[in-house]
From TrEMBL:
Keywords: Allosteric enzyme, ATP-binding, Cytoplasm, Glycolysis, Kinase, Magnesium, Metal-binding, Nucleotide-binding, Transferase. One of its GO terms (biological process) is fructose 6-phosphate metabolic process. Pathway: Carbohydrate degradation; glycolysis; D-glyceraldehyde 3-phosphate and glycerone phosphate from D-glucose: step 3/4. Its main location: cytoplasm. This is ATP-dependent 6-phosphofructokinase. It is found in: Cytoplasm. The gene is pfkA. Allosterically activated by ADP and other diphosphonucleosides, and allosterically inhibited by phosphoenolpyruvate. ADP binds at residues 21-25, 185-187, 213-215. Catalyzes the phosphorylation of D-fructose 6-phosphate to fructose 1,6-bisphosphate by ATP, the first committing step of glycolysis. Residues 3-275 form the Phosphofructokinase domain. The active site is at 127 (proton acceptor). It comes from Ligilactobacillus ruminis.
Length: 320
């Protein structure tokens, strides 16, 4: 093995640059060449590929987003397009590809693996919805951003005796809602993985008010419904002077937390070490703070991310 390709795909997440840096520098440290691929799978097929130099990696560990950019490219679902991508990799003499991204990005790596090209997936998504790992790159930063926003909203809720319904990102997973909601002392957290009763939440807010708490905070994962829709349903069961807020893409960007920088560095270095050992077709992850690598085909086709719904039970016991 002489050359490793690196691409980022799908939604950006803080810490992706730290992973790019780790993969490239670990490869260079082992005497290999690292090639960056701009604009994800689209850039791969178009041959937007360049040799990375060490100085290009200076000062990126603390930068949000991705220096390799990203682009939606649904055409990569077609085998003919995938084969064009492999042709480009061979044209540049690239022996293996490391893909940093979420579910869609992983499926691209899965397709390449099935076609015989050695690909490794590194989990980079704020949603934390990738099977085979406890945490993904960018999740911790997104939770920090969401928690800070919820803390600010709580101040206003307290000052004006209002109930705020706040929608956070996460696609079909409720992890951001759970972690930020607990950290902010939310009265209720609503996630796709757990049944909910809007009337019961309204009754809880009413009971809290009767016991002296004249404001409220409800955190809703985007996979459930919009904040506005939830607010309108909630208002049917009480007079809450409620407001709906959607945090949106602010959760994706910004300076990555130290935890995300270290996690990304560990993932990137581990991916290269596995490739040097002749291993591929893998999905990188972390379990009980130990790095793990699972077969990417088995991981995606036979497993699903498991949200820790016991955290919602914990919040129910604490929020009154």
């Amino acid at each position: 093995m002489k050359r490793i390709g690196i691409l980022t795909s799908g939604g950006d997440s803080s810490g992706m640059n730290a992973a790019v840096r780790a993969i490239a520098r670990s490869a260079m440290n082992a005497g290999l060449e690292a090639y960056g691929i701009n604009y994800g799978y689209k850039g791969l097929v178009e041959g937007n590929i360049f040799k990375m130099e060490s100085h290009q990696l200076d000062g990126i560990i603390d930068r949000g987003g991705t220096i390799l950019y990203s682009a939606r490219f649904p055409e990569f679902a077609e085998q003919e397009t995938q084969l064009k991508g492999i042709e480009q990799l061979k044209k540049f003499g690239i022996d293996a590809l490391v893909v940093i991204g979420g579910d869609g990005s992983y499926h691209g790596a899965l397709k390449l693996t099935k076609l015989g090209f050695n690909s490794i997936g590194v989990p980079g998504t704020i949603d934390n919805d990738i099977p085979g790992t406890d945490f993904t790159i960018g999740f911790d930063t997104a939770v920090n951003v969401a928690t800070e926003a919820l803390d600010r909203i709580n101040d206003t809720a307290t000052s004006h005796q209002r109930v705020f319904v706040v929608e956070v990102m996460g696609r079909g997973a409720g992890d951001i809602a759970l972690w930020s909601g607990i950290a902010a002392g939310a009265d209720a957290i609503v996630i796709p993985e757990r049944d909910y009763d809007i009337k019961a939440i309204a009754d809880k807010l009413t009971a809290n008010r009767e016991h002296g708490k004249d404001h409220g905070l409800v955190v809703v994962a985007e996979g459930v419904m919009s904040a506005q829709d939830f607010k309108e349903k909630l208002d049917q069961y009480g007079e809450f002077d409620s407001r709906a807020i959607t945090l949106g893409h602010v959760q994706r960007g910004g300076v990555p937390t130290p935890k995300d920088r270290v996690l990304a560095s560990r993932f990137g270095d581990y991916a290269v070490r596995l490739l040097l050992e002749g291993k591929g077709g893998l999905a990188i992850g972390i379990h009980d703070n130990q790095l793990v690598a699972t077969d990417i085909i088995d991981t995606l086709e036979n497993h699903k991310h498991q949200t820790d719904v016991s955290l919602a039970d914990l919040n129910d016991r604490l929020s009154f």
